[in-house]
Amino acid sequence: MWLLVPLAVFVAFNSWVAYKNAIEMATVVQDRMLLGAARIIAEQIRYDDDIFEVSVPPSALELFESAAQDHVYYRVTSSNGTLLAGSEDFPLPRAPARMDAAVHFSAQFRQQPVRIVAYTKSVIAAPSETTVIVEVAQTLHAHKILSDGVWEHTIQQQLLIMLLVAGLAWIGMRRGLAPTMRLRDHVQNRQPSSLEPLDATPVPNELVPLVDAINHYVGRLDEHMTAHDRFIANASHQLRTPLAALNTQVDYGLRSETIDGKNAALRAINGGVQHGIRLVNQLLTLSNAGAISTRRLQHAQKVDLVRVVQQVFEELAIVAQDRGIDLGFECKEEQICLTDTAGLLDELVSNLVDNALRYTLVGGVVTVSVERHDGAVLLKVEDNGPGIPESERERVFERFYRIDAGKHHGTGLGLAIVREIVAAIGAVITLGSPINHSGLIVWVRFPVQQE
Known about the structure:
The protein is an alpha+beta fold. The protein is built from 8 helices and 14 strands. The two termini are 55 Å apart.
């Protein structure tokens, strides 16, 4: 249909042009007939004894015989305005014609539109300054019949061509789109769980980029679903283990007959519940950070990073004190504002500091610093713990991955959450080792536009 719209516009314009051409052609034919009749009449004019003799031969009027039954009028006048023959009230041309030349014009005569020719002719034996003007007029019935016939014939040809083009276009489109229709049927008949790439071989070249884009999307969707399934499996495993331990501890407390045994079971249950609460909270945080990273940050506001670090220190001060860890904060500015949403900065700093406290040995040192560097804001968390081997620094960002899991009681989600938050806010995270001692340094470089 969209192919036919411009074709229909072209046909309409071409029909208008054809109508104008038909009228012009009919006018040319009529003018030639009028001029022929005027010449025949002019050739029969004689000048004898200072008198013009005018006779109109039948052949001059037979030129106009047709089924249209047009009226034909004529007039012959001398150059001085004397009527020699014909109708006296005949219209005059706006400008006289040159010698042996004709002027064609349209006018109204006896309440009918007519086409007139005025032909100027010199007569033999007449004074040189004396000429005759022969005018012949015809009504426009035959003119209209001729122009309408030519125009209708042209319209029929145009419509026939349009129908032919429409048919050929329909056949061509059906054949050209057949591979696309087969691809559509293949996609509609696929199972919901099928993530196999589409075959672009039978598809027209114009649609190959679309099929490639769909295959690329299917590949990314496959990776996302695989990671989603892996996350659910890992989360189920991580939740099953503390629940099984809690069940064992409850059974032990119920079987114990002493107050000390029951208290020990309750303390173990309390520790297990706290671990489970932390695991669930981190899973929710990880899910929230991942959701935000897939869309633009909305409802963002300015947050003081210095104040965020101070609040995290207040929350984790007891943990550092219980383990005898020197927890310090270095910043030369009183306030450094960044764009934050949904409390992501608080989660970022909390997970980095908590991770450092958990992996730093008793009596160790954890130092957090905030500074401006090259127009950006740089957050650094440094500890003197065992550190992370360079070969493991990429894997520690994976969910539930822990180094020496038997020695530390973490969830394996802290750095995974940090990476999701960093991706959501457009920052960059880097891991390194201190120069003068063992341990780990984590740098988070916030983008310039978020200051």
